[in-house]
């Protein structure tokens, strides 16, 4: 599970990498150290990705993002 402590412990590598959570939610850690929230889902049978924003004081935080991940499928379903 992605927690604030778990995300802060993620270290940049030579290439970007993805750390998954649940229900399609994940974070991508860039070589620069930037952490970006994303959500994978399917629309009309095709895989799609929604970038939710950066992690940090000026971006998304765990308290805001993870409890609301349940509402993301509802928003996506409205697009179909």
Automatic annotation (TrEMBL):
Occurrences of domain Integrase DNA-binding (ranges): 2-56
Keyword Methyltransferase assigned: no
Parts forming coiled coils: none
Gene Ontology process terms (BP): DNA integration
Gene3D superfamilies hit by this protein: Integrase, DNA-binding domain
Keyword terms: DNA integration
Pfam families in UniProt: Arm-DNA-bind_3
Keyword Signal: no
Classification via InterPro entries: Integrase_DNA-bd_sf, Integrase_DNA_bind_dom, Phage_Integrase
Family according to the record: Belongs to the 'phage' integrase family.
Designated name of the protein: Integrase family protein
Organism, scientific name: Brucella intermedia LMG 3301
């Amino acid at each position: 599970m992605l927690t604030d402590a778990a995300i802060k412990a993620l270290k940049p590598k030579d290439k970007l990498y993805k750390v998954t959570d649940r229900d399609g939610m994940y974070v991508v850690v860039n070589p620069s150290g930037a952490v970006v929230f994303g959500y994978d889902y399917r629309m009309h049978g095709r895989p799609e990705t929604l970038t939710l924003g950066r992690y940090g004081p000026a971006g998304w935080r765990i308290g805001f993002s993870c409890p609301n991940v349940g509402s993301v499928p509802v928003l996506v379903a409205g697009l179909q």
